[in-house]
Design a protein that fits this description.
With about 700 residues, the protein is of the alpha+beta class. About 20% of the residues lie in helices and about 30% in strands.
């Protein structure tokens, strides 16, 4: 706590000085308001917002003046925050608004400090605990910064703080809007019942009374938030919370849930209304870590407006490097535009020469030739798994039994001839237990020398050893094959709450090769080093099952990074994300490239889908690849009819459901149908249908 306390002492001294100076400048200054005997509140106000802090509980309301929307505090407990603390050896959560003392202090015209001292839990005063926060209103913008400035635990152990808790919530079936969550590509979670088929409705409604519609997401991991923001909106206004660059909260979500699961063990009905809310969870064990979020309020805004607000922030933070600039440096980036991304699985990295699935390099060449000559595919990116005679992370030598360097080079040369791209599968983050050369010497260790991440098969290698592993082999492969592209798996799907120098060193090295660079998952901080991400999809996402997929990531970054499907959930495979038809329609709508992943013996069965992907998805992707995704709309009550517009002038209209639907303008789209208007005015229409041959 020493650093924080020193900082706070300095801020208190400065605050005392400011109070002396500012008191004579404006009459509204209050040195301090406590919960004992003074019923005042403090108001921060500018042209756009009026923020009122209640001295009785430390909660606040925000009136967004242009729309007239008032965002109220926690509707369940009137809690400013929920504190995790160990009491009598047991982990408990308590409402900090039930503190013995709550003190408000106006530090300037636009800043109020709120202190919660000695919270009360089940009749017991937990003396020595204090939480100090600040609300800071931007004098010229519709923006409010909220920071947890300092805290003390006294004799108690503090774990986390949800603050502000349940702020900016939506009441289910009263507020017509959505919670907006950038998990993977992104989801919006409507705050009202809408038309859906019987099975989907059962899942949706059941989840709102169980813990299935609540949970926690981390920033920047493989299944968490791909961008550091979230928000809610209704028919009048939107609010987006943007996490400060130095902050690392988790996000807690509650989607149309009334907390019934909290009362089930007592056999009681929940007294709470169903609400949708999103809130930060601050890790109080990280004492020196900044705990700050900026909330911006958007009159008549929605999820698209939120994404565009964050797009400006991403540019400011340096994460946005356009695909056009990347293509100027390496013209081969243009080959990604309209490419069908084809993974050919021959066993590696899981097994070398896997029985029944491995392929020779002659067979790989034949597949490449067939794709060009017979299937007439214009652009393709071949990603071959299984070309080395060692397991990961040793991506060398090229397997002689499959055809050796000469055989693989023939295949690579074919891709160059056809204007395609090629990469072998590379990974430097994992050493596998079934590898005869399994090496725990590559694992990270803790301060005591014990192995770390032993239970994480795909992320067990010390990040600081991954650059050396890549340098051992990649330059050899580039020289042997004349590579123009590289796919390096998995390392860049994590941004843990620790030093990440090793990951960035690897990214910078790969970027220095001036290849078309790709990786699985990917996160915004790696966009400057990569040209494509594979796998911004919703596999194993419970949120996607009770919400709607939205192109949040692409609304921010479409013209900065090429996005393709996930190898473990390719377009040719039926999953919770849909079948080939639904995935293809979503691809053209979101601006995502097709992904077909197969083992060599399945290639003939992939041909029809490869041809359809080249006919339907590739032309749209080719025209929009370097364009900004300007807007996205849900046009029908069931959310199936959707429309996107790109800065290229391309407009995509799709129907993700089985029943024909009409736009307000009367344009009809058949079930699983699409209509694309290209920038030259040409219109392409079609629909996917189920067929049967006898």
């Amino acid at each position: 706590m020493r650093k924080i306390n020193n900082r706070i002492l300095g801020m208190k001294a400065l605050g005392a000085f400011c109070c002396i100076v500012l008191f004579s400048s404006f009459s509204g200054v209050q040195k301090g308001v406590t919960s004992k005997g003074d019923e005042s509140s403090i108001v921060l106000e500018n042209k756009y917002l009026k923020v009122t802090v209640d001295q009785k509980n430390g909660c606040f309301t925000v009136l967004e003046k242009i729309s007239g929307q008032q965002w109220n505090p926690d509707p369940w407990e009137q809690a400013a925050g929920i504190l995790g603390v160990t009491v009598n050896g047991k982990s408990e959560t308590l409402n900090i608004s039930k503190s013995k003392t709550i003190k408000l202090q106006r530090k300037s015209k636009d800043v109020v400090a709120i202190s919660f001292v000695d919270p009360v839990f089940e009749g017991q005063t937990l003396e020595g605990i204090s939480i100090d926060t600040e609300l800071r209103l931007d004098p010229t913008m519709s923006k409010l910064d909220i920071e947890v400035v300092s805290y003390k635990g006294g004799k108690y152990k503090l774990s986390d703080l949800r603050y502000p808790t349940r702020a900016f919530s939506l009441e289910t079936d009263v507020d017509k809007g959505a919670a907006v969550i950038p998990q993977k590509q992104g989801v919006i979670c409507p705050s009202y019942i809408f038309p859906m088929n019987g099975g989907s409705f059962c899942m949706w409604d059941d989840a709102t009374y169980t813990a299935k519609s609540t949970g926690t997401l981390d920033l920047f991991n493989a299944s968490g938030l791909s961008m550091p923001w979230w928000g809610t909106y209704n028919e009048k206004s939107a609010v987006i919370g943007i996490v400060d660059e130095a902050s690392r909260p988790k996000m807690f979500y509650n989607i149309n849930n009334n907390g019934q699961y909290l009362y089930n063990s007592e056999g009681k009905m929940s007294p709470n209304k169903r609400i949708a809310y999103l809130e930060p969870i601050w890790n109080l064990k990280k004492e020196d870590q900044l705990k700050l979020m900026s909330y911006q309020f958007i009159p008549n805004g929605n999820y698209v407006d939120m994404a565009k607000v964050y797009r400006k922030e991403a540019v400011k933070r340096g994460f946005f490097v356009s695909l056009e600039d990347k293509a100027k440096r390496d013209p081969d980036v243009k080959k990604l535009a309209g490419a069908v991304y084809m993974g050919v699985y021959g066993g590696y990295p899981h097994y070398v020469e896997m029985p029944g699935m491995t392929f020779t390099f002659k067979e790989l060449s034949d597949m490449i030739k067939t794709t060009h000559d017979e299937l007439k595919v214009d652009n393709a990116f071949f990603h071959a798994w299984g070309v080395f005679s060692n397991f990961v992370p040793n991506c060398w030598p090229i397997n002689e039994n499959l055809g050796g360097v000469a055989g693989l080079k023939e295949a690579v040369d074919l891709t160059k001839k056809y204007g395609y791209l090629y990469s072998s599968y590379h990974a430097y983050s994992a050493t596998l237990e079934n590898d005869p050369k399994f090496d725990t010497g590559l694992f990270a260790t803790n301060d005591k020398g014990n192995l770390k991440n032993t239970g994480s098969r795909w992320a067990n290698i010390d990040q600081n050893k991954q650059l050396g592993l890549a340098q051992k082999s990649l330059d050899k492969e580039i020289a042997a094959l004349g590579l123009e592209a590289d796919i390096t798996d998995i390392s860049f799907s994590y941004f843990a709450d620790e030093d990440n120098t090793g990951y960035f060193n690897l990214a910078k090295y790969l970027d220095s090769k001036n290849l078309v660079n790709g990786t699985e998952h990917g996160q915004q901080q790696y966009i400057p080093y990569f040209d494509m991400f594979e796998g911004m999809t919703y596999l194993n996402s419970s949120l996607a099952q009770i919400s709607h997929r939205a192109p949040l990531f692409n609304l921010v970054f479409h013209d900065a990074i090429g996005v393709f499907g996930k190898i473990q959930d390719p377009d040719n495979q039926i999953s919770e994300n849909g079948d080939f038809a639904v995935k293809s329609l979503r691809n053209i709508l979101f601006g995502v490239g097709s992904t077909i992943f197969f083992s060599p013996y399945e290639f003939d069965g992939m041909k029809d889908m490869i041809k359809m992907a080249n006919e339907v998805v590739s032309p749209v992707n080719k025209e929009t690849f370097f364009a900004e995704l300007k807007s996205h709309e849900y046009l029908s009550p069931d959310f199936n009819l959707q429309r996107s517009k790109f800065s290229s002038g391309t407009v995509v209209l799709v129907n993700l459901g089985p029943v024909k639907q009409k736009t307000k303008e009367g344009k009809e789209v058949p079930g699983f149908g699409y209509e694309v208007t290209y920038k030259d005015g040409k219109v392409s229409k079609g629909s996917f249908q189920v067929g049967l041959k006898h």
